[in-house]
Every structure is written in C-alpha cells, then in structure tokens.
Amino acid sequence: MSNLDREAVPSLCGGRGFVVAEPVRELLSPRRVKLGESTEVRRLLPNLGRRMVGAWCFVDHYGPDDIADEPGMQVPPHPHMGLQTVSWLHDGEVLHRDSTGSLQTIRPRELGLMTSGRAISHSEESPRSHARLLHGAQLWVALPDSDRHVAPHFEHHADLPQVTAPGLTATLLLGDLDGSTSPGTTYTPIVGADLALAHGADLRLPLVPDFEYAVLSMSGEAHVDGVPVLPGSMLYLGCGRTELALRAESDAGLMLLGGEPFEEELVMWWNFVGRTHEEIATARRDWAESTRFGEVKGYDGAPLRAPELPPGALKARGRVR
User: Fold this and answer.
1) 307 assigned to some structural domain
2) Which residue range or ranges hold the Pirin N-terminal domain (predicted)?
3) 173, 204, 231, 312: least buried by Cβ within 10 Å?
C-alpha cells in the first residue's frame, strides 16, 4: 500500500536511543489519511510519539467500510524500496499486482508479503466483484542494510500456523510465537500475530523480553495489560516483558507487533526507506523517469506521481519523540 500524502513528510527513524527498555503503557492515537477516492485509513506509525516498533515502521488500519456500492480500495501503481509490505485482512479481498509479474488476490487471514529490496512497484485494488465489507491493516517492515538491496519478490501464504489457548486463536504472520514459526521471510528478529479473542477471555501471552512490542486494536473491546484499547488505536508496550495480560470484554481482534529494536538509523520518505538524502532523491527521479522500479501490467490507470521533496537535505537520525 502506498503513502498517498501529497505533502510527504520525512520520518527520521531507527537507532536504539529512544527505545523504552522497560515495560510501559503508551497509547498511540491515529492520524486519519485519505487513501485514494473512497478509503480512509487510521495511521498509527509513524506517529508523533513513536516512529518504530522493532523493524515495524508503518501501520495503517482501515475499515470496516461498507463498499457494496463503492469501488473500494483503488491504489494505482507506485514504487517501494528498502522495506517489506505486509497486507492483512479481516474482511474483503485485495488484488495485488507488481512489477515482478505477481498477480494475487489476498483474502482474510492470508499473508501477502512483498519484499521490495532494491526496487519494486505494485498496485492494490478491490476486485470488481467484491465483498460488502473491507477491513484490514497494511504494515511495513524496514529492511536492514545487509538485505535492503535483495531482489524484489512477493509471497502469498494462505495456510499460517496458529497458537491456541482458552478464548484465543493467534494466527502467526511473521516470526515466532510460543513455539510456532511463520513461513514468511524475515530479515530481522520480529513477530507479527493476529489475536482473535472470545468474549470473556482472560489470559497471558508469552513474550520475548529483548523485544519491544505494541498491540493494534482491530475490533471489539479488549484490555491489554489493564489498558482499554479501542479499535483503530495502538498501545506501545516497551521492552522487558515475559508475558502480556489480555482480557476481552467482547469478541475482539488485536494485532501483536514486536521485534528486536532496530539499531540502524534511516530515512523514510513517501514510499521509500533509505539511509541518505541522495538515495531518496535518486529513487524519486528513477520513478519519475520510469527506470529501475519496473512496470505493473494489467492495472487500468496511470501510476502515482511522487510528491516534491521537502526543502533542505533529508538526514538519517535516531528515533525521535
């Protein structure tokens, strides 16, 4: 998914300097952003108070939207570099096309994982014949310097491992959880899991103390470590936890995001993750000149144009709050 802001603001991310090394409860409120003509998203990362959680550097939550009489998601071809995109649905379908030739319909609780590496472009759209509701999350994972120039590729995993407990079904998107491992390719120590809680569930989820964590609320009413988290908000939890208390006041859907704090300093601008101003400027020029990022075939419409770079040089810095 693209960052469609016409006035793209650079996000200065990474570095361990602002990682909270102990358990905290920091509730993050979303910023509302229009995505195309008919979809509005709630942006949780980057946030004014928190730029990254592990290698997770971008989190959008959207829906549930009634798109029975609407075109639904319509995101034209756009570029990415230096990151992975994670597409995750609770309702609806998204048709993914990219410049490697991938064509895949992603359905609820199936993992669409695109590794941009050095350069890729893709589009996302609701199929012409689509379900009434559209509800999901789009997330980015920053690639470490050692792997950010890998060949671009796309993965689709319809059969993902699950961890169960009384009142809980956890579907593992990425990484490891309670002895289960996702088939999705990762480049840093990370975890992403969809948590379906039944009404009345009261349990403790095992965590890795060296990871920092956050929980995104997708639906329902739940308490995370005693804090009520409403749909479209995210609770940052810091590091140093061996378990996480969860309690559901209704059937509820959450996403657990975590990972080893990302040490490298980086610059995220528009749909690019790089390390220097020159990298970002070169990527923008290459997209404008139709080089390097390839062509998305089959999408009915023109590709997105990149916004103008801000005045002054972009600088990579540590985490900012």
Assistant:
1) no
2) 41-141
3) 312
